[in-house]
Amino acid sequence: MSFEARPTGDSDSRLATRFRYEELADFIAGLVESGTLPAGSRAPSLREISAQHRASLNTVVQAYKVLEDRGVLEVRPRSGYYVARMSAALPLPAPPRPPLHPTKVAVSGLMLQLLENASNEAYVPLGCAIPSARILASSKLDRILARTARVKGSLLNTYSPPRGELPLRMEIARRAMRFGQALSPDAIAVTCGCTEALALALDAVTEPGDAVAIESPTYFGLLQVLRMRGLRVVELPTDAETGVVVNALREVLVAGRVRACVLASSFQNPMGFTMSLENRREVLRLLATHRVPLIEDDVYGDIHFGKERPIPFSALDRHDNTIYCGSFSKTLAPGYRIGWVVPGRHMARVLESKLASTLATPVLAQTALAEFLSNGDYDRHLRRLRRQFADTLERMSRTIGQAFPPGTTVTRPEGNFVLWLELPKTVDTRALFVQALKKGVCFAPGVVFSASGRYAHCMRLSGGYGWDARIEKGLRTLGALAAEALR
Ligand SMILES: Cc1ncc(COP(=O)(O)O)c(C=O)c1O
Questions:
Q1: Alpha helix stretches (DSSP H) within 157-298
Q2: Which end of the chain, C or N, has fewer beta carbons within 10 A?
Q3: How far is the CA of 307 from the centre of ligand 1 (A)?
Q4: Ligand 1: distance of its center to the CA of 129 in Å?
């Protein structure tokens, strides 16, 4: 078999002749890189490329084989060539192994630095886990808020009832029904974001000094909420795909080490995992047996890339042992600060705590949100968001694969908009964080996701701002800094 070769004009004799199949391979790789051929799409047929580029079929076959070797294309039996999901080419992070004993929550000093810089537009925004204003596209909601203020403003300038505004609770209940949560609006209490929901839930079931089982790594805001309540934690090991290691939870429960357990419903921050239905049922069974309540955080449930929204723990729970927490911060309106809690038998305690924490949630924001939810725009909005985030994470993974040093692993979430990277152990992302800020890039260093200073070689990267040349450049800058750190 012979392949066409052509001169490239390069003076180096080794490079002077590039094979035609190499040119074709680079051409197709360029289409993938630019997103013209998205991940998972069918690659152009061999005959198409052969005719378009006046290349022999053999040459095109060779080009596709090269792309297959590079992990750009994959062959599906009896179906042909497809653009590979490049993230699959990078291995997944290994499960961490924290000790299963209660520890005090030590919060990294980098957390405040991260929070200060994460929303500073001067930095490439890979640190901040909220969608950008462009992606949230909230102008319709803003108009509703302005009209509501104009028409009913003086009526709404008051405290809302303890559970919050009924129209909003009705909308939340209506949506919850779709994923198997049969709720009466009176079972819901509106809160100031998911943060307050988590705090009220913890207040209802723990006392200062108690220990709480949490995922490791976990969302750093939760660590702060736990620390401010004088709660200790047991960090549970997690697997990047299957979530909390159920045997570890069993061991902790059998030893009677915790008073409560906080878990993500799905697409956990920062790892992105969703536990299987089977494991979720087993977790519920274990927790009920040991009379340890579950607090579930479902802020990312609506951002699923697959067809179905995962079913939250509370919808599977037959023991009234779950307190559900949610909010609109990740999908629609982080600035409105609207979340909710479904506390089950702990409602009275939750409302008492609410009285002492924020008393009431702003009525105007609740009313505008209820109207927005009632007119059906939210579902269209969510469909766009999911497509955008799936595409962004795919492109980010691909760029990470090219730009970060060998030995880097990255998660493959099926929802959410963040990626968790594990770098070779000698790379300290705390130092990298400082260097990256100097180069105009912000990301979340691994240590802020642990109560005990773990994950110094890890980082979380957010795709909340979508994909553009600035994000790509920021990723390549981080990759180069990581490679330099290794040297
Ligand atoms: C897992 C998780 N829970 C809760 C929150 C806080 O949500 P809210 O802004 O609604 O308080 C965040 C924000 O990053 C989060 O990632």
A1: 166-178, 193-205, 220-228, 246-254, 277-289
A2: C
A3: 24
A4: 8
* pLDDT, tens only, 209-233: 999 999 999 999 999 999 999 999 9
Question: Domain residues of the chain, as ranges?
Answer: 5-84, 89-95+379-486, 140-377
Q: What is the pLDDT of residue 69?
A: 72
Q: Tell me how far the alpha carbon of residue 131 lies from the centroid of ligand 1, in angstroms.
A: 12
- The finding on whether 464 has its CB within 6 A of some atom of ligand 1 is no
42 - beta bridge partners? Answer: 82
Please identify, by atom number, the ligand 1 atom nearest to the C-alpha of residue 129: 14
Determine the residue of 330, 338, 419 to mutate for testing ligand 1's pocket, defined as the one with the most ligand atoms within 8 A of the Cβ atom: 330
Give 329 Cα–ligand 1 centroid separation in angstroms.
7
Q: Is the pLDDT of residue 120 over 90?
A: no
Distance CA 273, CA 25 (A): 34
Task: Give yes or no for residue 224 CB within 6 A of ligand 1.
Answer: no
How far is ligand 1, taken at its centre, from the CA of residue 375, in Å? 25
Verify whether ligand 1 is closer than 6 Å to residue 299 (CB atom).
yes
Nearest 10 degrees: Cα torsion 435, 469, 130, 402: -60
- Rounded to whole angstroms, the Cα distance separating 185 from 171 reads 8
Tell me which H or E stretch contains 482.
Answer: helix 469-486
Ligand 1 contact via 329 beta carbon (within 6 Å): yes
Asked if pLDDT for residue 91 goes beyond 80, the answer is no
CB atoms within 10 A of CB 384: 11
Class of domain 140-377: alpha beta
Residues 6+ apart with CB under 8 A from 9: 16
CATH no., domain 89-95+379-486: 3.90.1150.10
What band does 1 get if pLDDT is binned at 50, 70 and 90? very low
Q: Is the pLDDT of residue 87 over 90?
A: no
Q: How many angstroms is it from 194 CA to the middle of ligand 1?
A: 6
Residues 269-283 pLDDT 10s: 999 999 999 999 999
Contact 47, 370 (CB under 8 A): no
| Pairing, β 243-244 against β 260-264 | unpaired
| CATH architecture for residues 5-84 | Orthogonal Bundle (1.10)
Residue nearest to atom 4 of ligand 1 (CA): 194
- Asked whether this chain's domains 89-95+379-486 and 140-377 adopt the same fold, the reply is no
Q: Report pLDDT for 19.
A: 83
Say what the alpha-carbon torsion angle 20, 24, 26, 27 is, to the nearest 10 degrees.
140
The angle formed by the CA atoms of residues 238, 309 and 145, to the nearest 5 degrees, is 110
Helix and strand element counts for the chain (H, E): 18, 18
